[in-house]
Write a structure and sequence with these properties.
Elements lengths: L13 H12 L17 H16 L3 E4 L5 E5 L8 E5 L13 H16 L8 E5 L13 H6 L5 H5 L9 H8 L14 E7 L4 H5 L3 E7 L1 E10 L3 E2 L11 H19 L4 E3 L3 E4 L5 E2 L2 E10 L2 H22 L2 E10 L2 E2 L2 H13 L4 E6 L4 H5 L5 E6 L15 H19 L8
Parallel strand pairs: 3-4, 3-5, 5-16, 6-15
Antiparallel strand pairs: 1-2, 2-4, 6-14, 6-16, 7-12, 7-13, 8-11, 9-12, 10-12
This protein binds glyoxylic acid (GLV) and manganese (II) ion (MN) (2 copies).
């Protein structure tokens, strides 16, 4: 890398990275699979946190935990000041893989170990963070910890959030011992770079090793509760029904049709449907379902939300049911720092990896950090585009490529080579 003053020949140790990924994946391991279940703030999450914090301390990092349970480990630089930060999350969905989030955190530790083993002291501090409840699967919204870190939600409000199992964020944080005292909002880094698996099919299909992620699509999550008249399944004529189950499944069909009609990149998912009392011979009294809509274009996403709302009102009225909607998460599309995206692209090329620019379909902590500092992401391929599934897989060679790009990008950013988005 001509014109740079950091050691461009430095590379990570892929075996160490794979070993840490394997050790963390043993916590909450899903029998018979490579995947794991560590929903945010559960006992499994606590055990995963304890392991990563031990690794951070073993590497000599200064470890700070804030009030929402975000953990930041910092390696001092030659000068004080905001660090070059990387990171991600170690919570998973209930049927998660071993790479989603974990890769960004453990590759960060690998960067630190590589730098210290080489006897290097970067100009700026280097930090590795893992943010609480990125998945939002237990406690919506997703990216909760990083949202609070950047001041997008107050701590008090976040601590009161109730989960799908009735647990409360603040109580669970105390219970697992991760209600820390580091100040919030957190220190804005000099720059933030997140390595993550793509979780989609784009890189694999194109035969490309590295994604230089330039944006994240907008996310809209809502929970819809439908109430009707519970009654006997055998005796109630079809003309007399007020069936929340019918309304919920009609909404699910509509979400599918809406996404297809709006076309790529609009996506729509109904991930949860809960019927009560959930019995074969009882017309449900209520149905609760979630809708996840995403698009890179916020105007189209707003249009999708409006069309869904109109449909929900109409179908409920026709069936004689009542509906209530509640927003679980709503984040606009985010554009990353052009100069850091350039740096990722250039670095991947210089390391001999094929690279392409791309948006992210998934939500990431990086989209929150982008509110307070120049930010970008590095993607590695996902086999068969599979994620949020225990079968999630990225080859060791691709993991190594991603971690090497992360290392070199962080060193460049920490070595007073100025970047500018002007
Ligand atoms: C977070 O993983 C998301 O749902 O995109
Ligand atoms: Mn993730
Ligand atoms: Mn995820």
């Amino acid at each position: 890398m001509a014109g740079t003053s950091h050691p461009t020949e430095l590379r990570v140790d892929p075996d160490r990275l794979t070993a840490r990924l394997g050790a963390l994946a043993e916590i909450g391991a899903i029998d018979g699979t490579e995947g794991c279940a560590r929903l945010a703030l559960t006992d499994e999450d606590k055990a995963g946190r304890d392991l990563v914090v031990t690794w951070m301390r073993d590497l000599g990092l200064d470890v700070r935990i804030d009030g929402i349970g975000n953990v930041v480990g910092t390696l001092a630089g030659a000068t004080d000041g905001p660090p070059v930060m990387c990171g991600s999350h170690i919570d998973t969905v209930r049927t998660g893989g071993r790479y989603d989030g974990n890769l960004g955190v453990l590759a960060g530790l690998e960067v630190i170990e590589t730098v210290t083993a080489a006897g290097l002291v970067p100009d700026r501090p280097l930090a590795v963070a893992f943010f609480t409840d990125e998945e939002g699967a237990r406690f919506p919204p997703d990216m909760l910890g990083s949202l609070v870190y950047v001041g997008g939600m107050g701590l008090e409000e976040a601590l009161e959030i109730e989960g799908i199992d009735g647990a409360v964020v603040g109580e669970e944080l105390v219970r697992i011992g991760y209600a820390g005292s580091a100040p919030l909002p957190g220190l804005a880094p000099h720059a933030y770079v997140e390595l993550h698996i793509e979780q989609g099919p784009v890189l694999e299909r194109a035969g490309i090793t590295i994604g230089a992620v330039d944006s994240v699509q907008g996310i809209s999550w809502q929970e819809i509760t439908v109430t009707g008249q519970s009654n006997h399944a055998g005796t109630t004529p079809m003309s007399m029904r007020q069936d929340p189950g019918f309304v919920a499944t009609s909404i699910a069909n509509f979400v599918r049709e809406l996404a297809l009609e709006l076309g790529h990149p609009q996506v729509g998912t109904v991930g949860r449907i809960e019927l009560r009392p959930d019995l074969v011979n009882v017309i449900p009294a209520s149905a609760t379902l979630t809708v996840d809509l995403r698009n890179t274009d916020d105007a189209i996403l707003c249009d999708a939300e409006q069309r869904l709302a109109d449909f929900v009102t109409a179908i409920a009225e026709t069936e004689g049911c009542k509906v209530q909607s509640r927003t679980l998460a709503r984040f606009e599309p985010v554009i990353f720092s052009p100069s850091i995206v350039d740096l990722v692209e250039r670095t991947a090329g210089l390391l001999g990896h094929s690279v392409q620019r791309m948006p992210s379909g998934a939500g990431h902590d990086a989209q929150m950090l982008a509110r307070v500092c120049p930010t970008a992401m590095i993607f590695t391929p996902s086999r068969d585009g599979l994620s949020h599934n225990p079968g999630e897989y990225t080859s060791p060679a691709d993991l190594q490529a991603g971690a090497d790009v992360l290392l070199q990008v962080m060193l460049a950013l920490a070595t007073d080579e100025e970047f500018s988005d002007d």
